Amino acid sequence: MNIDGKLTAKKLRSELAVEVAELKSSCGIQPKLTVILVGEDPASQVYVKNKIKQTQEIGMISDVIKLPINTEQDELLGYLARLNNDANIHGILVQLPLPKHIDESVIISAISPDKDVDGFHAMNSGRLFNGDSGALIPCTPQGCIILAKQHLGNDLSGLHAVVIGRSNIVGKPVSMLLLQENCTVTIAHSRTKDLASICRQADILVAAVGIAKFVKVDWVKAGATVIDVGINRISTDDGGTKLVGDVDYDSVVDKCAAITPVPGGVGPMTIACLLKNTLAAAKRSVH
Ligand code: NDP
Questions:
Q1: Ligand 1, atom nearest to 189 Cα
Q2: Measured distance CA(214)–CA(230) in Å, rounded
Q3: Long-range contacts: 102-109, Cβ < 8 Å, 24+?
Q4: Three-state DSSP state, 163
Q5: 84-127: pLDDT as tens digits
Q6: CB 245 within 8 A of CB 231
Q7: Does any ligand 1 atom lie closer than 6 A to the CB of residue 167?
Q8: Which pTM does this prediction carry?
Q9: Residue ranges of the chain with pLDDT lower than 70?
Q10: Helix/strand/coil (H, E, C) string of 23-82?
Q11: Domains in the chain, please, with CATH?
């Protein structure tokens, strides 16, 4: 069966909308997200547009600062310093990837950890690692856990989770979250030996690799829950293109107990969890 990320994200957004309204009426605070977009990458423009639209739909304020592709790193740091000091802004997001001449790690470190709604700042990674409830947690990994629980219920204790991928954005944080849920976690990557047999042990299999249809049916244990994070655009026979995940969905769907489809699985959860983080940041700013 499919785990419907679109529906789950919609439900989460409507719950958040209620909380946004409550925060406004009780404290007079309306959460605000500011996004910085450098350059004109078409995919980034679409992502930013969706983020702005969805924040506003649940009653938050959001705006975008569009900067030209030749913006200097110091200039961008200047913008961040101003946004960090602006008490009316609760969430700051710099859309990645940045142009090559800008060091992403310097920029991420310059965002106030309390406003780092992407959850990429080392302070937030550290908090996540320490199991500190004050962490702003990266959005896609949060979405993965919500979707896994959607099928398995809230108690994931003792399940063996195998995560393929160890990026700072997905693989590592989702592994930490699964560990916090008392799963036994195996993290696999490009140097892992006999990946197929490791994957076959998984009760929960998370694929965050970036290779279309990488996970084959014989890698999946019957009855497993499969979370497919991948977003890969491939050519179709009719000359068009389509999005597919990192899992060979058509063959795996009948063997596993539940799987997140691509599109319509993890993808929609990412922005919904960004809204969740922005609300959390706004609530914490009250204290
Ligand atoms: P990265 O490229 O940063 O990381 C990919 C990981 O996969 C690496 O750890 C790499 O291992 C591992 N890997 C690569 N090849 C193999 C292999 N042959 N066998 C085993 N492991 C391998 O990607 P991201 O984590 O940023 O993204 C992963 C996927 O998720 C992409 O398709 C991306 O588009 C998608 N994504 C989707 C999001 C959403 O909202 N749904 C958000 C973010 C990402 P190593 O470290 O050894 O190189």
A1: 21
A2: 10
A3: 102/38, 102/71, 102/73, 102/76, 103/73, 106/73, 106/77, 107/73, 107/76, 107/77, 107/80
A4: strand
A5: 999 999 999 999 999 999 999 999 999 999 999 999 999 999 99
A6: yes
A7: yes
A8: 0.96
A9: none
A10: HHHHHCCCCEEEEEEECCCHHHHHHHHHHHHHHHHCCCEEEEEEECCCCCHHHHHHHHHH
A11: 27-112 (3.40.50.10860), 139-267 (3.40.50.720)
Contact by Cβ (8 Å): 263, 230: no
Q: What is the DSSP string of 244-255?
A: E-SB-HHHHTTT
The letter for the amino acid at 245 is G
**CA of 6 relative to ligand 1 center, distance in Å:** 22
pLDDT for residue 133: 87
pLDDT, tens digit (0-9, with 9 covering 90-100), for 131-164? 998 999 999 999 999 999 999 999 999 999 999 9
**CA of 190 relative to ligand 1 center, distance in Å:** 10
pLDDT of residue 286: 85
